[in-house]
Write the structure tokens for this entry.
Amino acid sequence: MFTGLVETTGTILRLERADRGLHLTLRASLESPDLKIGESIAVDGVCLTVVSLQGDAFTVDVSEETVSRSTLGQRRPGDEVNLERALRLGDRLSGHLVSGHADGTGRVAARQRRGESLVVKFEIPPELSRYLIEKGSVAVNGVSLTVNRCEGRQFEVNVVPHTARASTLGNLKVGDRVNVEVDLIGKYVEKFLLQRSGSQSTGGVDHEFLTRHGFL
């Protein structure tokens, strides 16, 4: 489990294909240098397991499922990524609960400076956009962000100067692909409501659904 507060960035050294998945080797300057084999670490918001250590570098395995759901398969040596070590029990939860299981990818639709901050608009698939609400939480490339507004398949966030400097979000360009994890709570609520109603619908929960089944 993670919080969406990036600890540092890392650089991809090697990317090797293996059994439809990947072996990814990275170098990072982590605040806590005591990484251990078997430890979880979020790489651009994707929870991966450390399988080997080589000096200041480490290697993680990326499964076929993770490749299909994230941007990691399109990465290249030299690319910079966001890194966060797993949350310790008792730590402050300054972001929001992030599982590190990317739900899918999105695209940078627009970006502009607004005062000292960077405002970025993303476009995501409709099966993800239904879980976003204004002032709700979303993780983009592992960074916990607040949704300013959302409309259709697009949502907008404000990236404050510190976040832009401490992560790779400040370097995003229009058209770049990003990993997106929506808030866990919305997905669980939807599933519970669908199961309670006995519905086999895959269209999600909306006002019509809630009214039809007596929730409103």
Summary: The mean pLDDT is 89. The domain at 104-185 is CATH 2.40.30.20 (Elongation Factor Tu (Ef-tu); domain 3). The CA atoms of residues 208 and 216 lie 9 Å apart.
